[in-house]
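Tutorial, part two.
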Amino acid sequence: MRSNKVFIGGVIILIVLLLGISIYFVYNGNNSLHDNINNSQEEYTNLDDRDTVENISSNGEYSVEELEERALDYYEINYGERPPLVSSILDDSGMVVIQLYSFNNDHNSTWDYYTIDPESGVGTNVMGKVIDLTSVLE
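Running the prediction step on this input gives:
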């Protein structure tokens, strides 16, 4: 009888511990990946200055504006919800890094990151899944 009480007590302690860990990650967030990406943004060229970004050329290159719009459309088609905000940076290799996000109270909440080749319109998301923005109809 005593061993059942000890077992039940141990299970309750384990549940409380797991609940506490879950609450910690929900409220504080496990932003290690997000922080690493944000900390490395110093390595990128900011694309907010649209004068430096070429528009679509006749040889099939995609503009940053078109890639951003297609990224929003792609996310909405695949996940049923459209991120309200988008921003982009150009990395040193010429890839466009697109952040899909929302602003919640006092912080940004990233929905996904896409690293896209502006020549082909194809790249990967933050988890390494292939993202083909050319599959999004205009």
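The longest strand covers residues 107-116. In part three we will examine how such features are distributed along the chain.
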